[in-house]
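pls ignore typos typing on phone
methionine sulfoxide + seq
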Amino acid sequence: MAETIPDLRNVPKARAYGELKGHSDAILEGVDDNVAAMATIATLVHHAFGHLWTGFYRVVVPGKLLRVGPYQGSLGCLDIAFGRGVCGTAAAEKRTVIVPDVEKFPGHITCDARSRSEIVVPVLDRQGDLIAVFDVDSERVDAFRAEDQQGLERLVSWFAATKQ
Ligand code: SME
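k done
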């Protein structure tokens, strides 16, 4: 496959995410493998926007433990308990969490000291059960807004639309 990842850093967010969803759907057509989809979505988002860290934490013990999955960027922490940090909060509450300044989020887990802001989106399967969270970190303060939430939630809606 000779798919090139577009540089969308200077493209309005709604259009950028629309373009990424198109790429992602085209690449994943006929695919029913969550790991392949996680790797593809993480790579597309990471390189299109030039983020610091972009990837998935999978639910390995429901209600209790997340473990790192496919990602791009610097080394990620391996395990995160539900309720801990931004990822664990998003998982426990099954909702998107946007942190404009990580230094102001009590309990933020530092995997890379350069991280300044973060968004974590829950990933649900067809039954509505939480299977992972999608975490994106930026070196810039306040990098994520409602349009990122919408765009990322739409990208991970792939997992609820497949048969697995
Ligand atoms: N900062 C996250 C931990 C994961 S890493 O940033 C890759 C958190 O507080 O949950």
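Helices lie at 13-27, 34-49, 85-93, 146-156, 158-161. The chain has a mean pLDDT of 95. more later
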